Amino acid sequence: MTNSAHDNGYDELIAIVADADASAERLCQIMGFVVGHRGLVDPGLLALHELDPAQGWREIVIGQPQCDRGRIRLWQCAGAVAPARRLGAQAWDVGGLFDVSLRSLGPIDDLLAGFCRNGFSAMAPVADFNMGGLDVREALVRDGDSLCFAMAERISPPLTGWDHVEGPVSNPFNSVITVEDLDEAKRFFLDGLGWTALVDTTLVHEGGRNVMGLPLDVARDKPVALTIVQQQGRMEGSVELIAYPCEGHDFRGDQPHWRGLASLSFPISNLEALLERAEAAGAAIVPPRSIDRGIHGRGQAAAVITPWAARLVFFQPDNAARP
């Protein structure tokens, strides 16, 4: 499938929360995001998540005002508060989307403190590590809606290109899917969907300190294998596949209306070709629907449910140039 300007990672993520107003207020305060839209959720987009419009779904869209991608759509149902997906899950447990990554543009300790003052808990102390020649500090937090954010502060070489952003973090740029078999996951994304790997490595944490909450002896002695993939091989709107050296729980039975990270949305130029490849690779498909993303465009979209129950929405805008 030929890449185009549209075939370049996810530009939105959807999270289901108990109280969209409260979540939007907290996240904007923590991250310097602003509200871009409030209203009812588009019926076509609800259908791609197997949700009923009659349940009164509404949304608040927030984002980093200096960035044109990485918006977060916070959805709330008018009915009873649903259970949380991945309830009690650890980083090594399979099922759905694990987290969303942010670049910390200031000291990560300050950013972590801001999250923890606003309803989030750290999953482990801040950890220092080197990946691909980059020295970074990283932390991981989760709240009562099972929204999980990873944050990374670049130590060396210094992060560049973000002087235009006034807040403490970048837009979301990466998201993790935990898998049992990394080779199988790479076959799905690289051979099946035709994406490109930009990082393919193993990590052993010297001293054992790690952000995932692994026991120190496991993190110190057993490698964690990971591959980061994206259509054009860029670290923007990318998906990180991680396989852990331990046995975990399986949360693939979580329901679509439950709270937590529900999906990632990828603008593409050829929806039909993408769906053919995804289905051949073993994904379940929620058929195309017309959707309206407001100022971010109308078009056709379908949902691809990966073998790890992570839902990826692929959106072909009406103005997309076919390759």
Automatic annotation (TrEMBL):
Residues 161-317 form the VOC domain. InterPro entries: Glyas_Bleomycin-R_OHBP_Dase, Glyas_Fos-R_dOase_dom, VOC_core. Pfam families: Glyoxalase. This is VOC domain-containing protein. It comes from Sphingomonas lacunae.
